[in-house]
TrEMBL record:
PANTHER family recorded: INNER MEMBRANE PROTEIN YEIH-RELATED (PTHR30106), UPF0324 MEMBRANE PROTEIN FN0533 (PTHR30106:SF1)
Alphabetically ordered keywords of this record: Cell membrane, Membrane, Transmembrane, Transmembrane helix
Family note: Belongs to the UPF0324 family.
InterPro entries: UPF0324_pro
Topology with respect to the bilayer: Multi-pass membrane protein
Protein name from the UniProt record: Sulfate exporter family transporter
Residues spanning the membrane: 54-78, 123-144, 150-170, 182-206, 212-234, 246-263, 275-292, 304-325, 337-356
Locations listed in the record: Cell membrane
Region (Disordered): 1-22
Length: 358
């Protein structure tokens, strides 16, 4: 009778060597919302319930008549630096959509004839400023020793429409997540500064509503900050700024195509800002449809939609501020901010001089 040989015991496990202390220091890129502010790492030691309560109270306040876009941005910034944003993923997802619907709603307070006139007036400024900003950005980026991708993203964001342009050009450029984060953080910090600085400068220089609206549309990056600053200045400034800025945003398409050719990228998909068509449709309805209706029903609904759009814009800026933390700003470094600030100051000063002396 055969006996089964005993099964050999498995060899003793050998303890794996401990990793080198430096191996744990891996820098995780800061993810960014598209078009709003960079993400922040939530402090696990902070009470989540308190953060949610504060967030809810501030959000409700932003829906009241006492709130304004600049104030909403300040409240969001304070929230981010104190208890933190407990709904960061949700606000990051909602911000672009909320901004687009808010812009469409503003169209119900626009006049098509005035919009066409403002668009024609700003077209030369748009072409000259976009081309000049891209060329100057390339030169400054090389001088600062920045990578081509980061330089191009910041230049496009400054030249066209901030985070929306970066979100559109980034995939075409096949940019890395950290490169997108750096560019977005740069333009969002400058957007926050512009939202407060521009109205003060406009009043100090006694700029007209038309002048200020045109200046905002050219020199401020994001549509949200453009509309916020123009709203604080006056209704006519808001009409001019919104129209010129959205006409400027259409340049995302040719600039994206040019980027694919310049960087020799193939098989990329160009993002089209379709919400601009919604704004145009709302403007046309507000201008012509009441003339076809004896009761003018749309004219009664229009002001309500415009008010809802302004509330949506206020909440958008609150969300943007709530995602912009000191940690995210520090993660960017000095050189991208130097590039972004230099481009912003150049386009702001040059456009202001032309507008005041034409």
């Amino acid at each position: 009778m055969k006996t089964t040989p005993p099964i050999a015991a498995p060899p003793a496990l050998v303890d794996a060597p401990e990793p080198h202390p430096q191996a744990a220091k891996v820098r995780t890129p800061v993810s960014m919302p598209l078009p709003p502010a960079p993400s922040v790492v939530q402090d696990k030691t902070r009470p989540v319930g308190v953060a949610r309560a504060v967030f809810g109270l501030l959000l409700v306040f932003c829906l009241t008549p006492w709130a304004s876009p600049p104030l909403a941005l300040i409240l969001g910034l304070v929230l981010a630096q104190t208890v933190g944003n407990p709904f960061l993923a949700q606000t990051r997802k909602l911000t672009p959509t909320l901004l687009q619907y808010s812009v469409i709603g503003l169209g119900f307070g626009m006049n098509a004839h005035a919009a066409v006139q403002a668009g024609q007036e700003g077209v030369l400024f748009t072409v000259a400023s976009i081309a000049g900003t891209l060329v100057l950005g390339y030169a400054l980026g090389r001088w600062l020793g920045l990578g081509r991708h980061v330089t191009h993203l910041i230049s496009c964001g400054t030249a066209i429409c901030g985070g929306s342009a970066i979100a559109a050009v980034g995939p075409v450029l096949k940019a890395k997540e950290e490169e997108m984060s750096v560019a977005l953080a740069t333009v969002f910090v400058l957007n926050a500064l512009a939202l407060f600085a521009f109205p003060a400068i406009g009043h100090a220089l006694a700029m007209t509503q038309n002048q200020f609206g045109l200046w905002c549309a050219i020199a401020i990056h994001d549509t949200s900050s453009v509309v916020g600053a123009a709203t604080a200045y006056g209704d006519q400034a808001l009409q001019v700024a919104t129209t010129v800025k959205l006409a400027r945003a259409l340049w995302i398409i040719p600039v994206s195509v040019g980027t694919a050719l310049l960087f020799k990228q193939k098989g990329v998909k160009i993002k089209v800002p379709y919400f601009i068509l919604g704004f145009i449709g709302a403007t046309l309805l507000n201008t012509y449809f009441p003339l076809l209706q004896a009761d003018g029903a749309l004219r009664a609904v229009g002001p309500v939609l415009v008010q809802l759009a302004k509330m949506g814009l206020t909440i958008t800026l609150f969300f943007i501020g709530a995602g912009l933390s000191i940690q995210a700003v520090k993660a960017v470094g000095a050189k991208p901010f130097v590039l972004g600030a230099a481009l912003w100051l150049c386009i702001s000063a040059a456009s202001l001089y032309v507008i005041l002396h034409r």
